[in-house]
UniProtKB/TrEMBL annotation:
It comes from Flaviramulus aquimarinus. This is Sigma-70 family RNA polymerase sigma factor. Keywords: Sigma factor, Transcription, Transcription regulation. Belongs to the sigma-70 factor family. ECF subfamily. PANTHER family: RNA POLYMERASE ECF-TYPE SIGMA FACTO, RNA POLYMERASE SIGMA FACTOR. Residues 27-91 form the RNA polymerase sigma-70 region domain. Residues 121-173 form the RNA polymerase sigma factor 70 region 4 type domain. Signal peptide: none annotated.
Length: 180
């Protein structure tokens, strides 16, 4: 039995659930934080979304069918929670999702948790110009170095479509960086 399968059995067991959940947190918390952070940009927002995501995982672990890896399932929840967060923020502020992204990038400049330089800030600006799907694909490939096979499970899209999205995203980012 793989470690993930063993962990899943424990997560679904009432007697071991809390202990197994702590192990799950230790295993995936940092990777999922950075995945979320790449989407929402802000440290505080990323922490909020991460917490909501883990609450959903905890409450819904018994509904996990095992059609994909546990990791992929959690990444999908993290991605959806991040997008939902941006949509709600846009609605609350009565602005578009793109404007939410632009605000987040402006706030990065004053974010004490952002350790990037001018070049990284420019890259974030370029990424924000991409359509949502291309942003996700670019972030997952470029920053998180996920394999297309794993991304395919998470985003429920073919590997070929993901490769095309990544290629297009890279070209758009190169153009943006050249012209700005």
């Amino acid at each position: 039995m793989t470690d993930e399968a063993q962990l899943l059995v424990q997560l679904k067991s009432e007697t071991h659930k809390d202990q197994a959940f702590k192990a799950l947190l230790a295993l995936y918390k940092e990777r999922l934080y950075w995945h979320i952070r790449n989407i929402v940009k802000s440290h505080d927002d990323a922490n909020d979304v991460l917490q909501n995501m883990f609450i959903k995982v905890y409450k819904n672990i018994n509904n996990f069918k095992g059609d994909s890896k546990l990791f992929s399932w959690m990444y999908r929840i993290a991605t959806n929670e991040s997008i939902t967060f941006i949509n709600k923020k846009a609605k609350r502020l009565q602005i578009s999702n793109e404007e939410v992204q632009n605000l987040a990038i402006l706030n990065l400049k004053s974010d004490v948790y952002f350790e990037g330089d001018t070049i990284q800030l420019k890259l974030q600006e370029a990424i924000a110009t991409l359509p949502e799907k291309q942003q996700l694909v670019f972030n997952m490939k470029y920053f998180e170095d996920l394999k297309y096979k794993d991304m395919s499970e998470i985003l429920e899209t073919s590997e070929g479509a993901l490769k095309a999205s990544y290629h297009i995203a890279v070209k758009k980012i190169e153009t943006y960086l050249t012209n700005n």
